[in-house]
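hiii so um. not sure if this is the right channel but i have a protein structure encoded as tokens and i wanna go backwards to a sequence. like what aa goes where. can anyone help
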């Protein structure tokens, strides 16, 4: 019999999947808390405990260069196939609080009009799973919701990523809540159990990079065929860090995602222009600056980073877009770490390009 409810090959697994569905239908606040496949945390979320048991769901705390109001940041992954985790499993409640929560939901579902037949049987099987030690291969049951182990661990439950637009992906963590002793890691079959790598990806998703407004010479208004120099000083061009952490009694991990700028790409806003270098990608210098400031005597020189407009902007402006490419890596609890896809973020500024006026005598 298969131990994963995502691939219900066995009859009892199928019944329990139906039980989960039935509880979802019976829970009007199913977007509020992890046991009901609720949403992820924001910068104010935290866990806690009272004198008898852990009572609050473990929620993710964000710090550093992250959005302050929740939601996604301004980083675009250079890898179009990479996406943040749509859901995960995280510590939810201690045994006594979980019993109160889950037993209440089960009783409510059982008393829902029309809850009979297969759905009613499914609810009964779920009740047996948590009350009467009913389990299956690789998935043990629990006696009275494990209340004799209250304070020694937590039930873990699914959490949805609220910023995942695909509802099927968002709800794909559909295993029943499971117990993990303090100090232990979840069984390997729960691949989506929260870990530093997942936290790093979530920090990446919330990362807020600084605006990229390059310094231009001439500034704002330039002339046709006149080289326009572009640069970024190292003082405003430095690495950025975002941290995601989760802490409850008996379990705590964190990950810090670091973005380092590596290049600047200039898009003139018109095809009637040349970029320097020709690729439009200006590399970072040894001192962490990009390009070189214009200096007296540079008028006839080619800028290491810049643009030459070949046509005037007329009565309008050209939208110069400056995009920074950031190399992104992460480190986390236990010495874990690695690379994440490069990120990009760009801003647009207006450039007026005028014809050079000849003077006739």
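sure thing!! here u go:
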């Amino acid at each position: 019999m298969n131990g994963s409810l995502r691939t219900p090959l066995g009859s009892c697994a199928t019944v329990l999947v139906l039980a989960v569905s039935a509880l979802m239908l019976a829970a009007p606040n199913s977007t509020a808390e992890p046991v009901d496949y609720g949403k992820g945390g924001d910068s104010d979320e935290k866990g806690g405990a009272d004198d008898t048991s852990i009572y609050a769901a473990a929620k993710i705390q964000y710090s550093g260069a992250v959005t302050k109001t929740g939601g996604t940041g301004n980083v675009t992954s250079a890898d179009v196939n990479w996406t943040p985790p749509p859901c995960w499993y995280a510590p939810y409640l201690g045994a006594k609080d979980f019993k109160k929560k889950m037993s209440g939901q089960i009783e409510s579902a059982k008393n829902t009009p029309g809850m009979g037949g297969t759905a009613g049987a499914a609810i009964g099987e779920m009740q047996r799973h948590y009350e009467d030690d009913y389990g299956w291969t690789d998935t043990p049951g629990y006696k009275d919701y494990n209340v004799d182990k209250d304070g020694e661990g937590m039930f873990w439950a699914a959490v949805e990523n609220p910023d995942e637009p695909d509802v099927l992906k968002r709800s794909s963590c559909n295993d029943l809540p499971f117990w993990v002793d303090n100090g232990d890691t979840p069984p390997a079959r729960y691949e989506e159990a929260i870990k530093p790598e997942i936290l790093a990806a979530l920090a990446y998703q919330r990362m807020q990079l600084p605006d990229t407004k390059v310094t231009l010479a001439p500034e704002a208004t330039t002339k046709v065929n006149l080289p326009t120099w572009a640069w970024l000083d190292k003082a405003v061009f430095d690495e950025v860090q975002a941290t995601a952490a989760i802490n409850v009694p008996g379990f705590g991990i964190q990950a810090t995602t670091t973005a380092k700028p590596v290049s600047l790409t200039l898009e003139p806003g018109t095809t009637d222009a040349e970029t320097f270098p020709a690729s439009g990608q200006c590399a970072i210098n040894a001192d962490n600056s990009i390009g070189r400031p214009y200096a007296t005597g540079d008028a006839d020189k080619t800028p290491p980073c810049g643009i030459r407009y070949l046509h005037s902007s007329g009565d309008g402006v050209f939208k110069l877009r400056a995009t920074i490419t950031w190399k992104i890596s992460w480190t986390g609890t236990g010495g874990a770490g690695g690379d994440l896809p490069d990120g990009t973020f760009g801003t647009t500024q207006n450039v007026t390009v005028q014809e050079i006026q000849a003077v006739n005598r």
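oh and The helical segments are 11-26, 95-110, 117-131, 167-170, 196-206.
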